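Hey, I'm writing a tutorial for new members on how sequence and structure tokens pair up, and I'd like a real worked example in the thread rather than a made-up one. If someone can provide the structure for the chain below, I'll link this post from the tutorial.
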Amino acid sequence: MLAARLQPHDLIALVAPASATEPDLAASAITNLESLGYRTRIFGELATHHGYLSASDVERAAQFQRAIEDPEVKLILAVRGGYGVGRMLEHIDFTPLRWAPKLIAGFSDITALHAAVWKTCGLISFHSPNAVDGFANGRGDDASRAALICALSGESLEYTGGKALTPGVARGRLLGGNLAIVAALVGTPWELDLGGAILFIEDIGEAPYRIDRMLWQLRAAGCLSDLAGVVLGHFTDCTDRPGKATPTGEEVLAEYLTPLGVPVLASFPFGHESPNFAWPHGALVELDATAGRVTVLEPVVVL
């Protein structure tokens, strides 16, 4: 299922489905989005802190529900990630997206939303910079912003970079996002079915043993047994204490993924540092790990 492409003067809904941001960052992100020719509308409070959340689970779900039911809204853009999306999923009725699909974009904890709209509606959404880290003053980079606008506008998508851990070529649906969230969804109604998929994962601030635990969980649950391929993004600050003799995060990833016998491409430009290129979650892609290239093979928006 596809939403209509984003065009000038379209309305962007700003939501905080996880943690809250700071008022000045939200304000500058909105100003910069409007300077690009889009209209914006805030759903809920973006900068009100409710512990480590932006609001209660029911309140955040209600704000997101209003955004998906607003007929003017073309794109729902998360203001930031953080924590809490998974807690609100049970309170959302995704049914309206089946007859009125909308563009949905964001990353990190927003991975749970991408999984939920894919599982409930088969809707392609966009793992991409959030509003603040992509558009606030002093945040993000021009290349990542341009890649997101290109993806939402319906331009052809091909990305290059990285290095092959296991060479080869494969095709499949692009599914995944933040590794911690992908693992946390196992056993829930929103667990991703990764059979035949190109799994893409990234993370930040996870020690190697925690990456090990997440990958072990995915393997033990059978989630890695029938992958078509894997793309690894930035694993930012995923190190152990200085001087501690443990495997690196990269070594742990290789230990679990290279024995799968599928193409594995590492150090690709997405995740919690720049560049963070937009990925159409659920789209059919071709992964050429040997050449360091991922090509989207089908339209990801209605032109």
